[in-house]
Each structure stands twice: as C-alpha cells, then as structure tokens.
Design a protein that fits this description.
This protein has eight helices and 36 strands. With about 575 residues, the chain is an alpha/beta fold. It has two domains: about 30-185, Sandwich (Jelly Rolls), CATH 2.60.120.260; about 290-560, TIM Barrel (Alpha-Beta Barrel), CATH 3.20.20.80. It has an eight-stranded parallel beta sheet with strand order 30-28-27-26-25-36-33-32, covered by helices on one side. A six-stranded antiparallel beta sheet has the order 3-2-4-10-7-8, with no helix packed on it. Helix 2 (about 320-330) packs parallel to helix 3 and helix 7 (about 510-530) packs parallel to helix 8 (about 565-580). The chain is globular, with a radius of gyration of 24 Å. The chain starts with about 25 loop residues before the first strand and ends with a helix.
Length: about 575
C-alpha cells in the first residue's frame, strides 16, 4: 500500500508522532517552551545541585539554542552547561502501568532528573534513548523535568559530523542540547521493548525478533495488513526469533514503494509497525553491480547534509521536511546519501513511503582534522596508515570505543527502515581507524545491506563499494572489478559573484550557466562512465548550507535549476544504464 503521511497544525512544534515503528496509541509530547539557563562549568558533575537560582528565559524545544527558531540564538561553549526545566502534568487515565520518557536526540552528553531524582544519562548526540520514569512520577501533581547538557564540538571522543565552532566552507554551525522531540508514553508492566524485522525477499519470509521487558516467553498475535485490510494472522512466541511467510507481499522499490503494516499484541501491549519486502545485493555481470530485489539498479542521488536554515539541525516543520523529499523524488532522483548526521526517524519514514533509497553515514568524530589531508584528498591518492591512531585523530581509546558504540546505536535505531540500503563507517579520513576491522564488524552486524567502508579516499580495499569522490577535474573512472564502482561525491557547482564569500567546488556566473554545466556534467561525463560499470552517483549537494552554496536548492528551498531539464537528464541516465545492464531493454 502507498501511504500518505499525516501532519498536525497547532502551536506545539513538531508534534507529529515521532516513532513510526513500534507505535502505540499512548503519546504525550513535551515539545514547546521550556525554561533554560546556560552557566559556566560542568554541571553534570554536581548534577541536580547545580540548578541555577534563576533561569535565563524560555527556549523552544526541540530547537537547539544556537538556532533562531529556539528563540535563544546563543552558542553553548565547551566549558558551559545548558540546563532545561519543564513542568508538566499528564492527563487523567494516561498512566497504564509504566511511564517511558523518550528523547529523539540530545547533543552531546546529558543527565536527566524528574522531581530531583536522577532517571538516567546518555552520551552521544545523534541517537534516540529512553528512561523508565515510573517511580519518579507524581500522580495528580505537577512534575519537574530537568535536563543538564554539556557539548564540546571539538571533543575527540564524540561524533560531531559537520559541526564546528569555526564554521565556514564545508564546516557548519555547531549545535547543542535537545534537537529532536521529547515525549512520554505509557505501557503495561510487561511490554515489548524491542522488535526487529528482517525481510527475506528471495524466500518470501519475514523474521520477527522480539524482546519483552520481563524477558519471559508469551504468545503474541501478529497480523499482517495492507493498510487496514487484513492479509494474514499468526501466533508467535515473544523473546524469540520467529519467521512468517508473506508470499502475498509485493516488492518495495523507488518505482513502487509498497509497505505493509503489522499489528502485534502481547498481553495488554499492542504496537503497530510496518515493513517492506526488498533485498540489497551485488550481482556479477561484466562488472559487479548493485542489485535491488535481485536486478541491477542504478542509485542516482544527492548528498544531504541535514541542515535546515533557521532550525539548523532541526526542520521548522515535518511538512517542510516531507515537501523537500517529495521534490527530490519528483525530480527523478531515487537516492539520498545522509551525510555525517542521523535524522529524526520520520525523515526515513518519508523516504520509505516516497521510495527514496538512503545511504547512511556514521557520524564522524576524533580530534580536529589536519587541513593538509582535506585539501590533498581530491588531488592525491591517499593511503594513510589507519592504525596510527594519533595521526588519524583517534589517539584516545575512549574515542575509538565511543565511535563503535554510536555506530551500533545508529544501526539499531535505523535497522527496521526499508529505505536504508548502505552503511558508511568513514568518510575522507575523518577520524578513520582500523577500516577493515570496523567495516567487517558493520557487515557482520547487518549482512542485509551494503557497506562503503571508506567513502572518498583512504580506501583499504574492503567492503562492497569502490567509493570515489571527484572534484576539480573531469571524471576518469576505471573499474577494478573487485567491488561495485560508485561515484559517492562529485559536482558541487556554485553561482558566485566577485567579492562574495561563498564555497563550491566549481563556479559559474549565473543560474543559466549553472543549469548548462549541470546538464553537461551528466551527459558528457556520468553517462559515458556507465560503460565502466558505474552503478551510483551522488551529486553535491541537495541544498545550500551557510557558506557552502553548491546545492540544487537554496537553504530556504528555492530550486536553482530547470526542473524539466533535470527530469530529462535523470531519465536518460536510467535508460542508458538499463540498456547496458538490465533485461528491461
């Protein structure tokens, strides 16, 4: 079934249900105005005792304090603490047994208190986490929720993506604090904590792995639905790996993004989920090629940095996020590379329902990078020693361990989403270490998806992808026949007038010239490279971000190119690939 998303309009920002998988009918959104204070020192050490006597004002959650939409517009510094406070009372009848407090993401380290009791802490700024607040909650009384946050955008330990205190060029505004939805749900005493869905396209089965809070096996009723129409029903055991047959499910693809619903009931707990039947594999023709559902498939996409203008890391509304993704699809692109950031789960849900494949980067970290390697990469083949941890900006064992933790958390958070096709552990040597070992660990953890071990350069020969970044020169791609050849960054054309401080990888004088240069790039360079087995291309980039003005959209969403020309170029690209490598021709 093709699904249309639902959007809500009221004064509460981003109040749509934030978790499209493991969905329940219990939802209390805490987005909106909170009290905040920023003060010197690491308040996490003192904990609740560090609360200031007076707060600085109000902040609009879930926008980071650095964003205009937060109404704060202030950079949190590495030697400061950000304190949030929210007072709330749950509606009558909401409490069903246990109360769970969810955070979509908090950058970078936080401790959380309810009514002065510590409910938990979390490290890492990009993945969701949950605390059981049942014993701290006061029924029929006002409750005080406090979140203390520290964030160092130059820390070696934690992932930071493109964030920088010295933004400019390819580095952008640093953010901090709560930047995704905060919400509460109520569940029974024994509830389904986690459900993992693994489709087996070739055998028409779906593996369902569950973990309940109590950990004892119970009978579950699992119903498969096409929309609301029931297709099949099964009785399975919880806390086991079970498999159901779904031969009636149509395959998911960008041309036909078929999704199916699951209703899962265990005791008093009922959740809804969705899944798709699809497979990502590699097939051997003259060269190795990406295959979707067993057939060679060209991935034609854009680099998506995940910056949203006045919201910085957070979209102004989910409707605007969806609208941008819809525009990408309507232009004929079928893929986005999510670069150095993990998005809210609704981003991937929209890609699922629109039929957009997502390549997911892990969030890079490590000590500040040397500019020499960044500048040399496009011109010189780099084969740096990735076991020289200090030189690769991973001298701290804690940093290497934290990267692996954040990688695992990212994969866990996104595993059930059909659109996610590829994991990229490292990009352009940024904090790169033990490449082959890390790449194999990612592949072993998830053999159902492709792995691009090292996007761009510092390639160690592992993974599924021979991943090339080409800037400042013409494409001259040669296939080594060992892996799938992919152009994972290129282009980056920008319109710049003399005297303007803008960044791009090539400059033209006006938008007409930009359109012509973009068209010629694909027709004269990308399409001819298909003969070498080129199987994917990722144009830099989706939209402008601060000084980097090489997006096909401006930062506020205006399209720079001629829509009809882009659609025609994309159609010619797919047709040329099909003539060479598929049975469609």
């Amino acid at each position: 079934m093709i699904i249309q998303p639902k959007f809500y309009k009221n004064n509460q920002p981003l109040n749509e249900y934030p978790r499209p998988q493991l969905k329940r009918d219990s939802y209390y959104c805490l987005n909106g105005e909170w009290e905040y204070a920023i003060f010197q020192g690491n308040g996490l050490k003192a904990g609740y005792r560090s609360l200031p006597e007076q707060f600085d004002g109000t902040i609009v959650v879930p926008y980071s304090p650095e964003s205009p939409l937060s109404k704060v517009n202030r950079q949190l510094k590495a030697d400061e603490t950000l304190c949030y406070r929210k007072k709330f009372r749950l509606p009558g009848g909401f409490h069903r047994g246990r109360l769970l407090l969810h955070f979509g993401a908090v950058d970078q380290v936080c401790k959380v208190y309810l009514n002065s009791g510590k409910v938990g802490s979390h490290e890492g700024g990009y993945t969701p986490f949950t605390f059981d607040i049942t014993k701290f909650y006061r029924e029929n009384r006002e409750n005080e929720l406090v979140v203390l946050v520290t964030d160092d955008a130059e820390s070696e330990k934690y992932g930071r993506g493109k964030q920088s205190y010295h933004n400019g060029g390819i580095w952008y505004q640093a953010v901090s604090g709560i930047w995704q939805t905060v919400w509460i749900e109520s569940v029974p005493f024994n509830y389904l904590e986690d459900i993992t869905l693994t489709p087996d396209y070739e055998n028409h089965t779906l593996k369902i792995s569950t973990r309940s809070h109590e950990g004892d096996k119970q009978v579950m009723t699992v119903k498969v639905l096409d929309g609301d129409f029931p297709l099949a029903s099964y009785h399975l055991w919880s806390d086991m790996d079970e498999e159901i047959s779904v031969p009636f499910c149509k395959p998911w693809s960008p041309d036909s993004p078929e999704l199916y619903n699951l209703s899962i009931t265990m005791g008093e707990d009922r959740v809804t989920m969705y899944f798709a039947m699809r497979s990502f594999s590699v097939v051997q023709k003259k060269y190795k090629l990406f295959a979707l559902n067993g057939e060679p498939f060209y991935m034609n996409g854009l680099l998506d940095q995940g910056y949203y203008g006045e919201g910085v890391y957070t979209p102004e509304s989910y409707y605007k996020m969806y609208e941008r993704l819809w525009q990408v699809k309507s232009l004929g692109f079928n893929m986005l590379r999510k670069h150095a950031k993990v998005e809210p789960l609704l981003y991937y849900y929209y890609c699922d329902i629109l039929g957009i494949v997502v390549w997911q980067d892990m969030v890079n970290g490590g000590a500040p990078y040397e500019k020499l390697w960044i500048y040399l990469g496009p011109f010189v083949k780099l084969n740096l020693n990735d076991k020289n941890y200090k030189a690769r900006k991973r001298g701290s064992a804690a940093s290497r361990e934290q990267f692996l933790i954040e990688t695992e958390e990212t994969m866990d958070a996104l595993y059930n989403l059909p659109c996610v096709a590829l994991w990229t552990p490292f990009n352009e040597c940024w904090g790169q270490f033990d490449t082959l070992l890390v790449g194999r660990a990612v592949k072993n953890a998830d053999p159902t998806r492709w792995v691009d071990q090292a996007s761009g350069w510092c390639d160690k020969g592992g993974g599924d992808v021979d991943s090339r970044h080409v800037y400042f020169r013409k494409l001259n791609l040669k296939n080594d026949r060992k892996r799938v050849l992919a152009l994972t960054e290129f282009g980056g054309y920008s319109v710049r007038k003399e005297g303007e401080k803008k960044f791009g990888y090539a400059y033209v004088d006006d938008y007409k010239a930009l359109n012509e240069a973009y068209e010629r790039l694909y027709l004269d360079q990308v399409i001819p490279a298909l003969k070498e087995g080129l199987c994917a291309s990722v144009y830099t980039q989706l939209n402008d971000v601060e000084e980097e003005t090489n997006g096909i959209f401006t930062s506020d969403g205006r399209f720079k190119l001629n829509e009809e020309d882009v659609i025609k170029v994309n159609a010619r690209l797919y047709a040329a690939f099909d003539r060479l490598w598929t049975e469609k021709s």
